[in-house]
Write a structure and sequence with these properties.
Blueprint lengths: L35 E2 L10 E7 L4 E7 L31 H14 L7 E3 L13 E5 L13 H4 L4 E6 L8 H18 L5 E6 L1 H12 L5 E6 L14 H6 L8 H9 L2 H9 L5 H16 L2 H7 L2 H20 L7 E7 L7 H11 L3 E6 L14 H7 L20 H10 L1 H7 L2 E5 L5 E3 L10 E5 L8 H12 L3 E5 L19 H5 L3 E2 L2 H9 L3 E4 L3 H5 L18 H6 L3 E8 L5 E5 L1 H4 L3 H13 L20 E4 L6 E4 L15 H25 L8 H11 L11
Parallel strand pairs: 5-6, 5-7, 7-8, 8-9, 9-10, 11-20, 13-16, 13-17, 14-15, 14-16
Antiparallel strand pairs: 1-2, 2-3, 4-6, 11-12, 17-20, 18-19
Protein name: Serine aminopeptidase S33 domain-containing protein
GO molecular function: diacylglycerol O-acyltransferase activity
GO cellular component, one term: membrane
Length: 709
């Protein structure tokens, strides 16, 4: 069948989507934004893509099969390795809602001649690595394709981004759009069969993504659905069709409410823009300017969604919802659903729960204070969301080591702010041991070069981790990669929990599911690894078991550390008994039928560890101890002298020798705990009240003294 290529931009284009222009004597260069022009939407049997380059103001079109699109080896763009993620370049791109309207207006003018839907890559997406997966953005009801404008720069460093633009006058049916996207997905999947294809769909685009996934269950797809329109039958838009048909001409008078629906709350958004300013007079002035600026974009909304187009898009949503819902059972792709709490167009949170229950590989994430166009709002970073859900991968499966991207300064600062209360309440004291055996306050005795394995006691509910990992980052710029229970990474049907979102912070900070292969990869990458041999049994201990080690009999980690010549740092952490007291433990709950059935049900669904281990540590029954808070005391951490394993590989191949070292490490941890329990009795600032008085007189950022080591 015939295919049609068309240029999305006129010769005089917005500088955001500028083209490289050279003299006629120069060799043609690849277009820096790689505008990919899609094909006819309903008559396509094999996708072709038009790559546009220029040597003069006269345009040159080169048609290629999309499978033949290869990266120009001579391209001079700088490539950024994901593993050497540049923090300064990753902290957002400064785009705003204003930029969305400005650039949308340019695109509408440039494509005013019509034509079929088409792909384009925004210039600010920058450069990505050769092994970066493809990300196709499928727009919502606006159809512009700029819904990721506030995400382009960060996403562009880890994805090859193509955005779909649907011209205002285009009337392609839903099945036509599905076939267009499907054709591109198949072509690119064939070109890079070992890498996944990401489909980020917003509203209407989410239905397209679901339809493509249902029709192609054998293709490796990752779906990120933003307020999907699969709930259109419950949407307020459905009831507006008769009203819109009665309104003559344009519907500019209705666009103020459309703007509110689009941004969630324009007044709140304008307030957010000036919230960081301190003086009252400039704030009022800026607030007024922001509200005026928002209202000035009503004509642009009228251009994006004139009456005829809006009616068409609503009918398209209706068809899309029916099509996608009828084929949900066929969707096998990995899926992340982002749901807004203030979506006035769709019941998105309810829909996210429905999809999560219906689809095995679907995980929801809720954003309670945001509107329908989530990705255009402040405080929403799609890269951070993807990292938190462990959804970024460059191969068939997510690799928790090679696919990991360290937290940026903004991500880390936000996490610290969210858990600042814990730092204030516990005022952690860090002690380490120098090479000469001297105990000092701080982490100067911690080896800066990896691999290093930290082995210690796990406090109640893992409360110690909330202060331990941030303190290492703040004081030593060391990221501890914790080994955590697998149930925090997989849905209940896979041996995990029903809601995984509370553990997104752990994944952003580098925690990985505990396993031999993951420990091997972390050691081989010279990481600083945090291991609690007592695991769940220690963190969910019973009454009266504070600071009692529940370690397995076998030396699970010693020979692994020895293989890579890692330093092993035994440490103790004390303070749980100064923060909370257990009132209902495992033994109490097993006597109550309701709690007993809950424990048994959760234990059956949870991933089982140490099934071949004997002793109390093998008791992996999953439950939640019920503690009551105390007047906050203090957390104390003591890191013993690092134990060298380098050069002992042959010696420690002997199981008996390895077991001797294992018992030595366990003994050192017990000594660290005993030392802290004794020394904290001499700390005049163990209670929170003396600490608050000290900080009130010396400044709240001052370090509170403690006992002499």
């Amino acid at each position: 069948m015939a295919t049609v290529g068309a240029c999305i931009f006129s010769a005089v284009s917005s500088p955001v989507f500028r083209r490289q222009i050279t003299s006629s004597s120069e060799k043609p260069k690849r277009n820096p934004i790689l505008k990919r022009v899609a094909v006819s939407t309903e008559r396509t049997s094999a996708a072709t893509t038009t790559v546009m380059t220029e040597t003069t103001p006269t345009r040159i079109f080169v048609e290629k099969k999309s499978s033949e699109l290869v990266e120009d080896e001579a391209e001079t763009k700088q490539r950024v390795n994901v593993r050497e993620y540049s923090e300064e370049e990753s902290e957002g791109n400064g785009k705003s809602l204003k930029d969305y309207f400005d650039e949308a207006e340019d695109m509408i003018k440039s494509s005013s001649g019509g034509g079929p839907p088409r792909w384009f890559s925004p210039l600010e997406c920058g450069s990505h690595t050769r092994d970066s997966p493809l990300l196709l953005f499928l727009p919502g009801i606006d159809g512009v394709g700029l819904g990721l404008i506030r995400q382009h720069q960060r996403l562009g460093k880890i994805f090859d981004i193509w955005c779909l633009h649907i011209p205002v006058k285009d009337r392609t049916s839903f099945t036509g759009l599905v076939k267009l996207v499907e054709s591109t997905v198949r072509s690119e999947s064939n070109r890079s069969p070992k890498r996944p294809v990401y489909l980020v769909g917003e509203s209407l685009g989410a239905c397209i993504a679901l339809a493509v996934a249902a029709r192609n269950p054998d293709i490796d797809l990752v779906l990120i659905l933003v307020n999907p329109a699969t709930s259109f039958n419950k949407s307020v838009l459905q009831s507006t069709i008769p009203l819109l048909e009665l309104i003559p001409g344009q519907i500019t008078t209705m666009l103020s409410s459309t703007l509110s629906l689009m941004t969630g709350d324009p007044l709140k958004m304008a307030m957010d823009n000036v919230a960081k300013r301190l003086s009252l007079q400039p704030t009022i002035q800026d607030l007024s300017q922001d509200l005026v600026a928002l209202s000035s974009y009503l004509p642009v909304l009228a251009d994006i969604l004139p009456k005829e187009t809006l009616l068409w898009k609503i009918e398209l949503l209706k068809a899309a919802s029916a099509y996608a819902n009828s084929r949900l059972h066929a969707v096998k792709a990995q899926m992340l659903v982002l749901c807004s709490g203030k979506d006035q167009l769709m019941p998105s949170q309810e829909e996210g729960e429905r999809l999560s229950s219906a689809l095995h590989k679907c995980e929801p994430r809720n954003f309670y204070g945001h509107g329908h166009f989530l990705l255009l709002e402040d405080g929403v970073d799609l890269v951070t969301i993807i990292k938190g859900a462990s959804y970024y991968r460059r191969g068939r499966n997510h690799d928790y080591v090679s696919d990991f991207m360290p937290p940026t300064s903004s991500e880390f600062n936000k996490i610290c702010e969210d858990f600042r209360w814990m730092r204030v309440l516990s005022s952690p004291v860090m002690l380490s041991t120098l090479a000469n055996g001297k105990i000092v306050r701080g982490l100067s005795g911690i080896p800066s070069e990896g691999p290093v394995l930290f082995v210690g006691y796990h406090n109640l509910l893992g409360l110690d981790v909330l202060t331990l990992i941030p303190e290492f980052m703040i004081e030593s710029n060391i990221l501890l990669r914790g080994l955590a229970h697998p149930m925090m990474y997989f849905k209940s049907k896979e041996g995990g929990l029903s809601d995984l979102s509370p553990y997104d912070v752990m994944r952003i900070m580098g925690a990985v599911p505990v396993s031999g292969i993951n420990l091997y990869k972390l050691m081989s990458s010279k990481s600083h690894v945090l291991l609690y041999p007592g695991g769940v049994r220690e963190a969910l201990h019973r009454k009266g078991e504070e600071y009692k080690l529940f370690w397995p009999e076998s030396s699970e980690f010693v020979r692994m550390a020895t293989t890579f010549g890692a330093k092993i740092v035994p440490f103790g952490a004390v303070g749980e008994d100064d923060l909370a007291q257990i009132v209902l433990d495992y033994n109490d709950q097993m006597k109550i039928p309701y709690f007993k059935s809950q424990i048994e049900e959760l234990t059956v669904t949870a991933a089982r560890l140490r099934t071949d281990t004997k002793g109390e540590v093998a008791n992996q029954d999953m439950h939640m101890p019920y503690p009551v808070p105390k007047v906050p005391g203090r957390f104390y951490f003591y890191f013993g002298k690092p134990i060298e394993t380098k050069g002992r590989k042959r010696e420690l191949r002997d199981r008996e020798k390895a077991h001797e070292l294992y018992l030595e490490i366990k003994s050192e941890v017990e000594k660290c705990l005993a030392y802290l329990k004794e020394k904290r009795e001499n700390d005049p600032y163990r209670n929170i009240l003396p600490r608050l008085i000290y900080q009130a007189t010396h400044g709240f950022t001052s370090q509170v003294p403690t006992f002499e080591p």
